[in-house]
Amino acid sequence: MKEKFKSLLPLLCGYLGYILWGFSYKFITVAQETASSTVLLSHRFVISCILMLILVATRLVKVSFRNKKWGSAVLLVTFQFAYYLFESATAKATNGAVTSLVSAVSPVLAIVLAALFLKEYPTTRQKIFCVLPVAGVILMTVAGQDLGVITTTGVVLLCLSIFTSGAYRTINRSASRHFTAFERTLILFIFSSVANTVIALNELDWSLAAYVAPLKTPSYLWSMLFLSLVCSLACNLLVNYATSNLPVVKISSLGALTTVVGVLLGLLTGDPWNYTFLIGSVLIIVGIWQVTKVPKIKEESTTK
Residue ranges per domain, the chain? Predict the structure, then answer.
């Protein structure tokens, strides 16, 4: 029983991490009513980083960066930093449902990149069903323009978000060979907190009063804390642990959970939609499900 739970733990962590991540777009939208995306990112990562450093300082968690290969870590930091910037900008340029659905294409890109760089090749079925998410994105773009919730800028930001997310997933898998889940998360947060704080302060003409002003708004404070503690800290630790123990195809399949949660939240809170939007949504979800589905036979042969 203990061994079975140990083998299921990475999968359970992946499930939980991606489900919680599905809430991020709505909380980002709420927080950006009070502060810019750069200020939000700064607050978000500074708090998460401080908590992680406290864990290290009190030796509750041990880390070691000696004799590590830093090439993958540098790429990981670069692509996740870019992804968070594009994620925040995309959430402001579109609505939660559109962003969540179109971002679901990133696992497909991750699978392609994994085949090119990690030699984890997709099956014939996965190659065929890659067409559905692409068709769904086209329909979603058309529907979004008709509904007035997506613009040319929004499309560009979505594409950049998809690319950086897919690249991040693949590089994260590679970096897991040299760094633990906690170490990768700590590296990301130290860089992100410093970089985003510099950008935010420069945007505010280095005014500390303007920097802390959003924290006085309750809706911003609670949204930012949820994004910091849950979507940044908890989700990154959970997903990074899962990534260390699961192949890219498998971990990418769990990413669809973020899409489902994000879309449901968007529709439940009044985001507009039409039938073209609905058809595009179905194509994306079905395509992602089939592309990222790993046959049982293959899984069994892998574990032997």
Answer: 17-303
